[in-house]
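Standup notes
- DV: blocked on the single-chain target, sequence here:
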Amino acid sequence: MKPDWTSIAELRERWGDSLLTVLTVLILIMMFVVAPLQALGLFEFQIFELFLALFLIGGVFLMSGSAFAVVAMLVALIMIVTAGILRLRSPSILDLNLFAGSWLIVGITLAVTVARATFAPGRVTYHRVIGAVLLYLSVAIVFAAFYTFIGTLLPKAFSGMKMEDSPALASQLIYFSFMTLTTTGYGDVAPLHPIARSLCNLEAIFGQLYPATLLARLVTLEIEHRKEEP
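- DV (later): unblocked, structure below
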């Protein structure tokens, strides 16, 4: 049975901006509540993360209206489930890379979908500003996945962070990614390999340029909308 694209378009038109806020809340919970609790060894929150991922997939599909987006998110979900099963049997680098690959797909798909919704023509609403924050969070997810790949391929790429399949790793990667994105630099974790340093430089540059670019774009959209008003 094919989906009713007309109904989906109507729902997206009505709730599209609100979904930006809902998805932002979901991502914040997953990164800053569920991940730290997983680091404490609470297995129940891994199941909770799976349910949140399902809601995330539904929200991205509804917002984008794209079959490609939902397929990408479903592939990511399958990778997460597979990695979780492998982790229960015997933790290894394979399931670690599966987790990283899944969140890379989620981050890129979410970033593209949110960017299109946030910077589309029209009035700049509260939800669009929240969507800009969600795009910022999505970039941190993407770089966290890249750091995982580099860390598994090059075991000494980072100091202060060991790439091994453990419940605490996700929290450490999120911490390091945001520390780099915001150029905080506490010094407890640092890149050592040239490739790792290059990725960190890219993330730091984005973290510095994004707020200024974002502000300019949102102001331009609001001015254009006001000019169109009768």
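- Follow-up: The chain has a mean pLDDT of 82.
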